[in-house]
Amino acid sequence: MSSKPFPMLIFILKTYILISLLTLKATANETIEIGAIVDINSRIGKEQKTAIGIAVENYNHDKRNHKQLITVHFRNTSKDAVEDLSTAEDLVEKNNVKMIVVGMQTWEETALVADIGKRHQVPITSFVTASYTPELVQLKWPFLVQMSSSSLEQINCISAIVRSYLWRKVIIIYEDDMYSDSSVLAVLSETLKGDGAEIEHQVILPQTSSLSDPREVVRREVVKLLRKQSRVFVVLRSSVSTASHLFKEAKEIGLMGRDSAWILADSLADLLDSVHTPFISSIQGALGIKTHYSEATKSFQDFKGQFQKIFLSEYPMEDHSEPGIHALKAYDSITAFAMAVNNLGTKTSNDSKLLKNRILSSNFTGLSGQVSFVDGALSHPSTFRIVNVVGNRYKRLGFWSSKVGFSEVVEAENGGRIQVNGSHTMKSSEVKWPGELNRVPKGWAMPTDSKPLIIGVPGRTTFEKFVKVEKVANSNERKYSGFCIDLFKEVLKILEQNYTLPYEFEPYDGSYPDLVQQVINRRYDAIVGDMTILAERIKYVEFTQPFAESGLTMVVPVKFDGSKKAWMFLKPFTISMWIVTGSILVYTMLVVWFMEHQSNPEFRGRWKDQLGTAMWFTFSSLFFAHREKIKSNYTKIVVVVWLFLVFVLTSSYTASLTSMLTVPRLEPSVKDINWIKRTNTTVGCDGDSFVKDYLRQVLELQNIKNISNQEDYPKEFESGNIKAAFLEIPYQKVFLREHCNQYVVAGPNYRFGGLAFVFQKGSPLARDVSEAILTLTQDGTLNSLEERWFALSRNCDNVDASNETESLTLGSFWGLYLVSGATSTVCLLFFLWRLCRRSWQQSQAYYDNVVHPSTDQSFWTKTARIIRYYQKDKPAVSLRRVTSGRAAGLGVEERGASSRWHLVSPSDAAQVFDGSSQHPQSSLEMGNLRSE
């Protein structure tokens, strides 16, 4: 009996210990399970696994997190997406994970796992940028958390680089992904178009994991690029394994050589720190776009030390142990999850939907940058570091962000660095390009001696002054000459300062529109000839800077109209000019007569004789020196100004009339195009050019005759087959030079873009040739070529009906008229003032000596007598009859025998009045005059 209680005591003690342990475990830290699917065999997967382990360890060793611990279940990815899907299912169902971190590098695999998260409502964290917009991703996969920003930022960065180096066409290369759509490519295409570039071709490479012979498949796709003109390649999305085959094959066939440019998106550029040396050596000279992160913070330095220590111990075969952006994002994803768990607490951490929302509401500065989410993706715009692959690694060129553009320094996120000088272009001097090229690559398939530039030349031209193709006798060679050929040779001299341009001319006997089509079809690389820039052409080909103006004009025969010859003498002056000239002549005549007729015998006599003399005096000064002498100084001033006016008028009139009489009046036989439309008259044009279609479609002309040679135009005019010819301005100038004074231009000019050379769309050679043409224009070479080929004949008096001498207008002489009129008026006013002053003085003397008014007369009586005096007896104009007897010294009785009267000047009248004491008969004469 005494031994039975002992086993019972032991049982009770064990039960107590077990209960105590269970109670202690209940009060201990709660464990939260998470899953991580990474490619442990890849460099990215190794970095992600190491970073996730460090983040979990740091969280579990933090004393502030003693109530909850995190446990990670790592799973390796497989080459089969179905197996990865099963792996995710097991993590959710068997391990009861609260979050899955997906380290897969393709959107295909990420989308499959995101479907599992949607079905089981478990947050899925991914580092792959989705091919869809963030809004659409949230609708399809609401539990997906993207630890990546929108791909639009990187697209803008790629477009900025292309714009910076003036590349016009690019080739996009990306690895196939069955879950991808065309939205990214569509956005990239539109962005490039906004910067003046376009996508020439797309290369879709299959995933090498699904191929038995990936090298051969990649080689077939790469060889196709040799038929493309663009040499700017953008690797938009690719794995390292696929990219290794791509660059190896591209280097073997010469696509990594001179004038080629390669741009690596972040899917490859972010791995430049960890890829092996053979991969680096195959992409020498390429530009990379790396996601920027700060390496100067204390948190990064602490993490870097932990990472290198663990990474080297677990993966001693890796060449580099520094963490990349993938490791930093993996660490930040665990940090965001841990912060969400701490905020929710132990009771609510099992609510997956609330956990997902808490993760998306994160806002902290992590190792990879600012972590905050909008529509399930990182909201903070990425800053990219532009690098240049040189040697065993790369050289850092600068930064790019949507806010600043290109810059040498990056703007601090906390605003510490304020002044950042951004630019729209990159510095090319620091870049080492493929093939060790010392200039910016053209990004185009440049011609070589083995593959020269094939240039089409119009073999059938109407005006051979521009282009002429002749076959050399007894050989298959052809001789090319003309203004356009000489200009192209001058352009080559300038281009040879930078690079050689091997070429071959090839004549084309078709029409000009068909010749342009050959460039579009890539039969020809360029066209050297008199090609007109048109809106419908510029959509498909590249034109250079115009070297000649272009427009459509109507040329018609001239008719000489002599009906207006009789009145040609009136043409030099306009009507207003004649009126003003006549008015100033009459005014000057009256002023001269008024100031001269009282003191100058030449201007005396009857009224009509006086006016006739004044008119003759004034008018005769237009042609020769006048005979009449003038005495008044005021009149002399008026006449001097008038003579100067006469000199200017006669000189101008003579010059204008001479020009009008010597230059033939070339009147067009057809005035305008409306007459042609009304009469349905036949017109001629070059049927091989665009002119025929323009006349029919735009000008709505029906009867059009094709003329293939410039010598046929005069024959067609003379025979009456055509009444007008429509020629482009350069051809019109050549035609009128050879047929001057026979044809003229009538009607308006219909403007076009000009004459230029043609290149394939996007060709950088067009830009270089344009610069060379501008150089030739500025240094006078182009003018010299024009004078040599299109110099006007000296025998041509006129080649344009519009070159008529215009009549002289009042606007050219109104100042001279004003001076003449003002001078005459001022002199007249001074003359009147002196005349009035002298008259007043003489009147006072007359009153005192002759009139002797009574002092007792009233004021009004004196005033009336003065007025009557001025009306009848003014001494300024006194009449006296001079008889022959008076002239002979006879008496007063004999005065009546004479009937001749004289106008006496004021000075003569004064002598009469002042000499009354010396000549007693003066008083008697005055008395007899008053009585009469």
Automatic annotation (TrEMBL):
It comes from the Eukaryota. Gene3D superfamilies: 1.10.287.70, 3.40.50.2300, Periplasmic binding protein-like II. The chain crosses the membrane at residues 573-595, 637-655, 814-833. The keyword Cell membrane does not apply. It comes from Nicotiana tabacum. Its main location: membrane. It is a multi-pass membrane protein. Residues 1-28 form the signal peptide. It is found in: Membrane. Residues 911-932 are annotated as: Disordered. GO terms for molecular function: ligand-gated monoatomic ion channel activity; signaling receptor activity. This is Glutamate receptor. Glutamate-gated receptor that probably acts as non-selective cation channel. The gene is LOC107790599. Residues 454-792 form the Ionotropic glutamate receptor C-terminal domain. Pfam families: ANF_receptor, Lig_chan, Lig_chan-Glu_bd.
